[in-house]
Specification:
By secondary structure, the protein is mostly helical. The chain folds into two domains: 7-82; 86-184, no CATH class. It has helices at residues 7-31, 35-55, 60-66, 70-80, 84-111, 120-126, 131-136, 141-150, 165-173, 177-200. Helix 1 runs antiparallel to helix 10.
């Protein structure tokens, strides 16, 4: 008789996939392949979520019936462990706040000699968002899960972006939003692993 899977085993295995995605994302984008990154992310997030649900009392047969819907799994985890969603979203948002501000500051230093960056219109034209703009324009982990759930669709790959100023600013600040989506999933996945280990024991 095979050994019964454990919640910690699920979480650790899921973490291995997420870390593999992280390593691929550092090199894979340069080589032009992203499908293995998405595959590792999807599998990793699914396994971590199922580990948490196993820890909440679900049976392995019930986990199999849940399938591969990442949003549904994440919602189920939040129901079993209230505030998981808030904690993961906050972690991802804090990451992007720091990262996008650094990008903005580097760009601002390069152009301050030639432009009046205190003029809001000039800032918008040059793609220099304020801290408030960055705060409004951050990527949502839930939307990233939806992207990974549905896969790439060439016809509506801008579906997460409206024409509002703060979202145009986001695109100017970090033009390749697919990289942004993947990094959000990696950051959120790492936080989910951390929560998982807290709930099931390290």
């Amino acid at each position: 008789m095979g050994k019964e899977p454990t919640p910690l085993g699920f979480v650790n295995n899921g973490n291995a996939y997420i870390q593999a995605a992280r390593q691929l994302s550092l090199k894979g984008r340069i080589a032009g392949f992203t499908t293995p990154i998405d595959q590792c992310l999807g599998i990793g997030l699914e396994i971590v979520c199922k580990g948490l649900l196993l820890a909440s009392g679900e049976k392995t047969d019930d986990l199999k019936k849940r399938g591969h819907n990442l949003q549904a799994l994440f919602d189920a985890v939040d129901k079993a462990f209230p505030s998981s969603h808030t904690s993961v979203e906050r972690h991802v948002r804090e990451y992007w706040k720091g990262h996008l501000r650094k990008l903005r500051d580097v760009k601002e230093k390069k152009i301050t000699r030639n432009f009046d960056v205190n003029d809001p219109n000039v800032r918008e034209l040059l793609g220099l968002p304020t801290n408030e703009d960055i705060g409004k324009a951050l990527m949502s982990f839930q939307k990233c899960l939806l992207f990974l759930n549905q896969g790439y669709s060439a016809d509506d790959h801008y579906r997460y972006f409206s024409t509002r100023l703060e979202e145009r600013v986001e695109l100017k600040t970090l033009p390749n939003h697919f990289d942004m989506i993947r990094e959000s999933l990696i950051q959120g996945g790492q936080k989910l692993v951390q929560l998982g280990r807290q709930h099931v024991g390290s």
